[in-house]
Each structure stands twice: as C-alpha cells, then as structure tokens.
Design brief:
- The structure holds two protein chains of two kinds.
- Chain A is of the alpha/beta class.
- Helix content of chain A is 22%, strand content 31%.
- In chain A, the strands form three sheets. Chain A has a six-stranded mixed sheet with strand order 1-7-6-10-11-3. A three-stranded mixed sheet of chain A has the order 2-4-9, with no helix packed on it. Chain A has a two-stranded antiparallel ribbon with strand order 5-8.
- Chain B folds into four domains: 145 residues, no CATH class; 146 residues, no CATH class; 154 residues, UbiA prenyltransferase (Tetracycline Repressor, domain 2), CATH 1.10.357.140; 134 residues, Up-down Bundle (Four Helix Bundle (Hemerythrin (Met), subunit A)), CATH 1.20.120.
- Chain B is built from 23 helices and no strands.
- The longest helix of chain B has 43 residues.
- Chain B is globular.
- Chain B starts with 10 loop residues before the first helix and ends with a helix.
- The chains are: A alpha/beta, B mainly alpha.
Chain lengths: 156, 629
C-alpha cells in the first residue's frame, strides 16, 4: 500500500523567516556577482563592434530606401529590391516588446560572408541603419538572433 | 489488506473494517492522483517549451478561444498551442482535485495540506498569467513569469506528493542538521537560474554567444552577450551548490538511501543539461534542443525541490513513527529491478510487440520506401506508449477478474506489486506522453487514431463488451487493428484503402488467434464469468468459428493486391501463408485437442509477422529493381 497514516502531527523542525531571508540575500548576491562577471563579455562584444562593420541604429529622419517590419519574431517581407551604388537607409520597425532584432547583410545564404551588420535593439522601437553603397548583385539578409527571419536583397 | 472472514466477527467490527478499507482505497487512489498531477505538470511544462520554441504561442492570438473558435484549425502551430492549453486545463482539474483531496484526507497534516492548497493558488495565478501572456504579445518578462509560476505549481505538487507518499520512508532521523538548509538554498538558486535561462530565450540572447564554454560574442550585441553569460556564470555557481548538496547526501547514503538517489539524479541531470546548453550554441537554437533544455531544467528543479523536501522531512524525524516498510504490504518489499519489471509487465509487452510488427510495414507501404529513421522511431515509441497505456488501464480495470484467472494471476496488480492508484497514474502518463509524441513529431491524425484505439479498448472492450458479449473479442479487436492506421497516418497525415485493408486483416485475424488461446483457458474464463467464445459455445462450435475467421482473414489479405500497394512477392507469400493458416484451422477442427489449438495460436503469430514482413520485402525489392532499371 502506497500510503501511510501521516495525519498525526509531526515534530516540527522550523524554517525561520530570518533563515529564508538570509538565503534569498545570498542567492541575490551570487546572481549579482554573476551579472557583473558577464558584463566583461558584454564589453568585449561592444568593443568588437567598432572593428566589425556594425552599423549604428539611429533615430529615423526622412524617408528610408527600404524598410522591414519585425513582428512576432518574423519579418514582413522575404525580398528587398534596392538601388546599388549609393548609400542606403534601411528602416527596421521592431514591434516585439523586449525582444532584440537587427538586420545584417551577407553574400551567402549561410550567413558566413558578412557585408554589414545593423546593431541590435529591442522593441517596440523604429530605427534607421545607414549602410554604405552595395555593388550590384544578390545579397541575403537576416536577424542575427533569429536566423529564420531572413530574405534576399537585389541590389541593382 | 486482507479482511478476516466477516462471519466470525461482530457486525459492528466488520463494518468498521470495511469502512476503513474503503477509506484507505480512496486514499490510495488519491496518492495516484497526486503523482499523476506531478508527472502531467512536468509534461505540460515541457510542452510549453515546445510552444515557445516553435513560436506557436501567437498561433492563437486570442484567449481563451483560439482564432475565435473553441476547436482550432488543424494547423500544426495552432495545434501545439491549443494542445498546451487543453492539457493544462485537464491538469488544472487534477490539481484542484489534489487540493480538495488534501482537505478531505490530510486536513490535520500541514505538510500535505499547505502545499496542496498552494498548488491551486499558483494554478489560478498561472491561468491569469497565461491569458496575459498571449494577449500581451508574449513579452519576455511575462513569459518568464508564466514559466516561473508553473515551476511553483510543480514544486507544490512535489512537496504534496512527498507528504502523501510518506517519503523518504525511513525511520532514521537525518543526522546532518544543515542538509535541509543547503538543499533549500540549492533549490532557490536553481529557480533563479531558470529565470535567467528564460530571459535568455525571451530576449533572443541565445544566439548572442557563438561559442561554448566561453563566449565569442556577436559584435555590437553587448547587452545580450551579458544576459547570455549571466546565465552561464550562474550555472557555475548553481553547480557548486548542487555538487555540495549531493556531497552531503552521499555522506548520509547509508541511512537515507532515497536522498542520495535523488541527489545522484540531480547531478546526472545537471551534467546532461550543461551538454544540451552547449549543443544549443554549437548546433544553433533548434526547437528540439530548446524543449530538451527546458525539460531538463524542470527535472533539475524537481530533484532540488525533492531533496529539500525530503531533507526537511527526514530532519524532523517525521517519518520515524511510521510502521516499518516490511509491515506495509508487498509493494515496498520489491527491489528496484522487480519494480521496473512489474511496471513493464503492466503494459503487456507481448501484445505491444505484435502491434509494432504491423506498424512499421504500414509506414513502409505509405512511404513507398523506407521512411526516415526518426519518424519510425517516433511512431514506434509513440505507439508503444499509447498501447502500453491502454494495456495498463486494462490491467487496472480488470484486476478483479484477473485475480480469478490462473493465466493472469501473476499480473503485478493482482500480486500487489503495484498499487492500483500508481498503476493508473502510470497508465495515464504513458498514454498522454505517447499521444503527445505522435501529435508533435508524427502527425496529429496518427495521435488521434492511437488515442481513439485506447478509448475503444478501454470503454468498448474492457468496460462493456468483455464482460457481457460473446462478440467481445471480435468487436474489441478493432482497437488492436489500429496500429497500421497509425503508421500510415504518421507518414502521410491521411488514410487510404490500403491502410484500411491492413486494419481489416488484423481485425479478422484477432478472433481466430484469440479464441485458440481461449480454448486452453476456457475454465479460467468461465470461472471469472467472461463470456469468451469457447465458454459460451463450447469447443466444437468455436472450432467452426475459428475456421470461419481464418478463411475471412486470408481472403482479406488478397484485397491488398488490387490497391496496388503490393506486388508479386506479397501475393505469393500471402497465398502460401494463408493456405497454411487454413490447414491449421481445419486440423484443429479434426483433432479437437488443446495442443492443436495452441499450435494454431503459435502459428497465428508467425502468420501475422511473416505476412507483414512480406509487405516490407515486396516494397523493398520493387524499389531496388526500380532503381536498377
């Protein structure tokens, strides 16, 4: 039989409130320490941004050459067609609250050969990327955090 | 519990004893319910991971309906999300039942009552959060809160289960006074770690680090890299606490074996979890890995909560007044190996074998070649789980007549190796897991067919026809004939004539096969009052019926030929096997002995196996020759 009669009161070994608060404080301290240590890696990634063609996400001003809408972790379009040979303004409208997105362009669909990478930002927010001129041809874009958010760019 | 012969006792005493027995039976079933609720919670949490990993959460943009309807369209994402809600709703009722049962049977035991009531409170919070989760477009904070609350529900149920089951069931008081505190701290840290993990997923930081164990951060993604590494550094801290807890458990392993076993499980899950986390980075964030990562996290959480709970209970010496295990029935006297064997026996593995033999050939015919290994594996495991669940439910329901029959007297429930409540919880768990596996990784139709077979087997066969009709095995056999349909549906997502012919082959084969066995156990069935053919008709007429169904089976096997699904090899094979089958049936009618019946029974198994093997061979050879041309 699975059950025993446990309905009789048991001798108590009590958990005091002070003990519990102490534990929570200790846990929070450990997590805070972890967060600080993790910040070192974050700074490294930011430093690398300067050397790795990361395009800043700036306040939108005027019309954009092309735009993408990120909603429910998906882009609204699979294909962009933009002029080649002159700098481009690509607008990213991120409607996912608290979720980071970006747009990065690659020469290959495997996203190995980077052309330029837009900086990540979390929604809901709309930002412009000012990319340098593309040479005519076919490119691939994606959100680096959600690679299934992708498509093609025809620069002509 | 064995009652003494009531005639020898004063009426009042026997009445009291009966009441006590009813009471203890109800509590036994309640113990099963609590364990079932724990298992189902684990399952719903893992499924929630799937909802999140596949992005199905927004497939139903409204709440509580789905796209304005109660029943959604058969779109897979919608199905994943809707299934999560449906099973969660069932679970909700199980948890409310847990709270009510605690109120009914454990009102004076606060170690059960408090967590059982808390479970319902958390469920109510969870329902509200669930609604907000969807209507607030899944912001990561809300999603994390949803996960965090589900873990609290899970923990409450685990603590309740430990109380109801009287774990850790040892009379020794824990000698390490600090252990419960350390274990509780470990659980607290694990909880925090899960929240950081949830935030990693929610914010999209999973892809921010491109290497493991150190971080090759995505340039410019500083904030996300920090979130990601926050989780990894915290993993190290939690690992230290978990390791230390396990070390303490190891020190008391002699007097607290359960504590040590749970701690060992915790270490194993921790290591597996680290590997899954690494794979997430190496392979990329794919849904399957995400689901595994969450499932392992929930398991990790469960072990830590159990360690803390068992630690507190053992430290209080709260179980010392309980009777020693040996005096408590045979269930506890079993070794681990025996217990596992008893549970496996509950699923009637021999019957499952037969079911699987028919599933794979159906898949091969449906695919017109070899289906992917993954799909076959998923379908076989899913089919085994659902069939095993159905068989275990049958064991649960039939335990009264099983105890009256020689042939089934050794079944685990009859021998008291497993309590009925646990058997039912086990059965339902298998069933739900199998159905989910099929629905998610095969096709929803395959899952629906497998579940309907179980329902038919349980309600139509076991509960209704088996005890009332001589046609029990004929009609009930339909349940056992479903596996080819499941296999076919797993591949194509639909059914065809060929699938139905395979269904019919097994349908007509079953009576011939089973009556041969029933001839041998005729007295048994008569004793239990089960109206099997040989009992009602007598042997002579049964021989005729067996012959009739044998001929019908063989005729039906030829129906597969005009569907174009099979070729020459099958035609020749089915003819030869069929002739032999009919000869066995004729021979039984002529000699009329039990040994002839058993020979027919043995051949019927070989027949079915070879017939379906011929289908596979036929397909493989045609593919090979087709490739050669």
């Amino acid at each position: 039989m699975a059950l025993r009669d446990t309905s009789a009161p048991l001798p108590e070994a009590r958990l005091s409130l002070r003990m519990l608060l102490g534990m929570v404080a200790a846990a929070l301290a450990l997590f805070a320490a972890a967060y600080v240590v993790a910040g070192v890696y974050g700074q490294q990634a930011e430093k690398q941004a300067g050397e790795d063609r990361v395009i800043a996400a700036v306040e939108p001003a005027g019309a954009a050459d092309g735009s993408l809408l990120a909603k429910s972790v998906a882009f609204d379009v699979k294909a962009l067609r933009l002029p080649a040979g002159r700098p481009l303004v690509v607008r990213l409208q991120n409607e996912d609250a608290g979720i980071f997105h970006n747009v990065a362009f690659y020469r290959d669909p495997q996203a190995g050969d980077l052309v330029a990478r837009g900086k990540l930002f979390d929604g809901p927010l709309t930002r412009d990327y000012r990319f340098a001129a593309f040479t005519p041809g076919r490119y691939f874009f994606q959100c680096d955090l959600h690679p299934w958010m992708n498509g093609t760019l025809e620069a002509e | 519990m064995q009652l003494p012969a009531t005639g020898a006792l004063p009426a009042a005493v026997s009445g009291h004893a009966r009441e006590a027995q009813t009471h203890s039976r109800a509590r036994g079933a309640y113990g099963g319910l609590v364990v079932f609720a724990c298992v189902l919670t684990y399952f719903v949490i893992s499924w929630g991971g799937l909802v999140r990993a596949t992005g199905a959460g927004l497939a139903c943009p409204d709440w509580p309906m789905c796209n304005g309807k109660i029943l959604p369209d058969a779109d897979t994402l919608v199905l994943i999300e809707w299934g999560h809600r449906l099973v969660a709703a069932i679970l909700g009722f199980a948890i409310f039942g847990t709270s009510l049962g605690a109120w009914r049977w454990f009102r004076r035991d606060r170690s059960v009552l408090v967590p059982a009531v808390l479970a319902s409170v958390f469920v109510i919070i969870q329902i509200i959060l669930g609604a907000i989760t969807v209507t607030a477009d899944l912001s990561p904070q809300i999603v994390s809160a949803h996960l965090g609350t589900s873990m609290l529900v899970f923990a409450s149920l685990l603590v309740t289960a430990a109380g109801v089951q009287g774990w850790p069931r040892t009379s020794a008081t824990l000698s390490l006074r600090a252990f419960p505190v350390i274990a509780l701290f470990g659980a607290l840290m694990t909880y925090g770690l899960m929240l950081t993990g949830s935030y990693v997923v929610g914010s999209g930081a999973g892809a921010a680090c491109r290497s493991w164990p150190l971080c090759d951060g995505l340039p410019g993604a500083g904030a996300l890299v920090q979130v990601h590494m926050f989780h990894r550094v915290a993993v190290i801290f939690v690992g230290a606490v978990v390791g230390f807890t396990a070390l303490q458990a190891w020190r008391v392993r002699g007097t607290q074996p359960l504590l040590w076993r749970v701690a060992l499980a915790g270490i194993a899950v921790y290591l597996a979890q680290a590997l899954i986390g690494a794979l997430n980075v190496w392979i990329g964030v794919v849904p399957l890995l995400q689901v595994m990562h969450l499932a392992a996290a929930a398991a990790m959480w469960a072990t830590m909560v159990l360690l803390a709970t068992l630690g507190w209970r053992a430290a209080r010496g709260g179980v010392a007044h309980l009777p020693p295990a040996a005096a408590d029935g045979t269930a506890d006297a079993l070794s681990r190996g025996e217990t596992v064997r008893a549970y496996v026996a509950l699923t009637k593995p021999r019957i499952i074998e037969l079911l699987l033999v028919t599933t794979v050939p159906a898949m091969v015919l449906a695919e017109k070649g070899m289906p992917s290994l993954w799909l076959m594996l998923v379908t076989i495991i899913g089919g085994t789980l659902t069939a095993g669940g159905a068989n275990a439910i049958n064991c649960y329901l039939d335990r009264d007549i099983d105890s009256l029959m020689e042939r089934t007297r050794a079944r685990p429930l009859v021998r008291g190796q497993i309590t009925p409540g646990r058997a039912l919880a086990f059965a339902l768990t298998l069933e739900v897991a199998g159905a989910a596996l099929l629905a998610v990784f095969a096709t929803p139709l395959a899952s629906a067919l497998a579940v309907s077979a179980t329902l038919f087997y349980v309600f139509v066969y076991t509960l209704w026809l088996k005890r009332t009709s001589v046609q029990n095995i004929v009609i009930g056999g339909a349940a056992g004939s479903v596996p080819p349909l499941v296999g076919w549906a797993a591949v194509t997502g639909s059914l065809s004539w060929s699938a139905w012919v395979m269904f019919a082959i097994i349908f007509f084969w079953t009576p011939a096969h089973f009556w041969a066995l029933a001839l041998k156990y005729r007295d048994d069935y008569a004793h239990a009052g089960v109206p099997m053919g040989p009992v009602v008709w007598g042997a002579r007429r049964t021989y005729g019926q067996i012959l009739l169904y044998t001929v019908l089976t063989v005729l039906v096997t030829f129906l597969l030929i005009p569907t174009g699904a099979v070729g020459l090899i099958y035609t020749v094979g089915a003819t030869a096997l069929g002739i032999a089958f009919v000869i066995y049936a004729l021979r039984l009618r002529r000699i009329a002995t039990t040994s002839a019946a058993m020979r027919l029974f043995a051949y019927s198994i070989v027949y079915l196996f070879l017939l379906f093997a011929a289908m596979v061979l036929d397909q493989v050879v045609r593919n090979l020759s087709g490739a050669a041309l």
